[in-house]
């Protein structure tokens, strides 16, 4: 197979070799350059000549401008300083997230040579906003995005703040450029703009005699100007890689840019493949679940090599990079050399979790006369991380048993050190609360972990992750060292935010072994055998993520890229990748679990439609039922629904003696992980550490619910006014003491002091605050307190009627509406309202896909349970005890829930229950390892500590 790089080399004659040293070849990626070098040496390696300079485009602009691209954090600090001059009260903490968006917008503005001043023209009032942003929906979306970044909820404030930023962002742009140039710093876009402008000047001193730009597509405006200037000066050649059919067929978006370039630069060199005339074999594999995809891909790769495919001509392309680690675990590495050329998201690594858990532990540790005191609530996540157990096996289990046995909620440092066997861990725990000491301890620990893996010749990927993390931490530390005023909370947030977007580049010998890569890393590369994994709609191409404050309308006017171009870019990369392949495997997840759509990518559908008309194409489609037979990873646990399990499941049926039902919590357990649901709610399996919920948090929930119930009980079925609620406030303390005694949290007549007193005060404040909120809402009629009488039945053929029920904390009637309120002590998250307006079904689906929306899930479930019992429109809200200042957070922005939405939810709920009882679907482990983070069955599943 002749690859694109071989074709470029063919253009170089033997007689040209001596001139090459003054030439420069530029590729979209570094990898492209490496493959070109190999192809060049394959042909001319035995000749005596000096290699040309080979660059990625990013390195090229740096070399040409003599400036290097400054790292994001430094840029952010500079930008922050400028903003701070305009707003003294601005804190880095609040600025960090939206500052990143602005930085990205500036970068794009420069790459596309747009006029920042005009883009950020005075948006003085709402009228102008409407005019400029055009779509109100979009503006709402931008504000919503801003809201998620600022954690501010008050809408008016939010809008004012957003407009304030908008008003200044144009002027800040200029100051920012000036500041950076003074210090010889720059972001990427600045360099592109700079090069585009200097190249057209006559006196520009070229560092190279001749330039070759190879394999580009969808050029930014600045790239276009750069290429054009050099072509016109007869100093450059352009090489394009295309396929006949997408150049000829006008409706083919893959050829959108290329057709334009063919007219613009007719003298370029075009490599037009004619892929449709060559015979190919195409396999489409429908696999249930993410993990199974990784296993299948590993199996297919092994088989291909076994059948004689050359490893370096074989690529596994992961459209979802999260599958990298599962794939590497599944791939028999001893048999095959694997080269990973992709960035892996730092946020999905164990080391990232480890560092965050550790920082949280140290941040929340209290300083007392006897030294640091840790809360078991913070210790548990830290102890259960796999890296904590590296030097003390089983530490989580041992210490947790001790916490439970001794009813410990807090532990002093010395007491803890006695239980910890490893000196490395001891050093971590002893680090104290100063960032510098913490950073040193972390470095020492992770370095020890690195060498430990190395010594055992294991954890190859872990070593890569640790190495990269330490490198980044050192860099980060250089800044943090000068910021003594930064609290540990802020440092943790910076680390969290900073690493969230970071990808770990895997660096190896890229031309050897089976190639594993992300989709964008395939640019300019060709492989004979291709396995594309996560070939699902939504992953290929990825869902559009417009992390920008510049709306669509302005983007169009100023010729900045929009999502339409994004699709054309993806289409080109995908179709180009296929053009020289002889055998292709597309693996996709056909379930709708997690973030999977269950559908194959539209790119695959388009190609299959085209291929099916061609006789010399062989298309084989295969669907895998259940998990892949003989699980490749023997650690996988899956519980089939045999007679024993069915017997246990039958306890939730109507008419059984035990009176059991599926509760909202058990159903969210199922959504989190079917195996967890089975272990916890079906088999009632209790790990010792099942008591791991923080005792204080549990008590708090019980007591606060109980006191509010008792206070309002006399008002059941009566209307209560603000004045009467204020009178209830006087009864809180007495009811609280009663409840604390009833629940044996304090002894009868106990004189409260220390922790008990604080606990009581916290609870009291919460209850008082709830009553204050209620007084503002009064009058209303109390119609239910801790109500347990509502249930819905799901009929399943041949099995019976499954009961779904729960306890509704409070129901009241106000202004002709039924209001259902749930008190929560944990975090509350709802699915975005934008989605609710855009796609109601997808909105409801989210509640069934992602357990983080469990509060909303519960809310809708209550609306289903009470359906038909009241002749009133229903509204559901969550009162978060930890965020009482925000008041009750109402689902659907405080609107009542339309009947058809309740029905939509009910239908999904019935499907979920039917799935639980479906004999063909075993209780399998979740694919999402993050969900295992706080699961009490980690030990059993060998996931985590
Ligand atoms: S550890 Fe993970 S896989 Fe195992 S039960 Fe818990 S959530 Fe499921």
TrEMBL record:
This is PD-(D/E)XK endonuclease-like domain-containing protein. InterPro entries: P-loop_NTPase, PDDEXK-like_dom_sf, PDDEXK_AddAB-type, Restrct_endonuc-II-like. It comes from the Bacteria. SUPFAM superfamilies: P-loop containing nucleoside triphosphate hydrolases (SSF52540), Restriction endonuclease-like (SSF52980). Residues 662-942 form the PD-(D/E)XK endonuclease-like domain.
